[in-house]
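for the writeup, i need someone to sanity check this before i put it in the appendix. the sequnce is what the collaborator sent (i think, or maybe the updated version? ugh). structure was predicted straight from it, no edits. if anything looks off just tell me and ill rerun, i have time this weekend
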Amino acid sequence: MNETMVCAVGNVATQPVYRELASGPSARFRLAVTSRYWDREKNAWADGHTNFFTVWANRQLATNAAASLAVGDPVMVQGRLKVRTDVREGQSWTSADIDAVAIGHDLARGTSAFRRANKPDAAVTSPQTEPNWETPVADTADASAPQDAQPASVT
């Protein structure tokens, strides 16, 4: 509660670094977010300032991000924004991190082929068939009674 949730659209700037920790898998990469604006003088689109974020992913998201992302990929990242200030060797440093909840390729700039991740603990279940929505289900109390076909009205 009371966390700053953001959605950042940009490009993967560094190869994701994957680690197996005691608390579970973790991955991080840098995200470059560049604003674009219409330059009236040049009559063309121009790049503005680029912001860099360190994106952190944990558990299954970390595993999938490390296997799916490469430098230059256009992505969308949703998560909690964490701005940190630190003093290193007498200099003040500020970093902006995103603790990712969701990461995906930006389909406005390309295509992607989704593959569901294997779940090793998932029990094998028989596939359920899709119900036939065109055939009405017979009432169990009146199963022997004939069904009257009524035309559907279209308005």
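The helical segments are 59-68. The mean pLDDT is 84.
thx in advance!!
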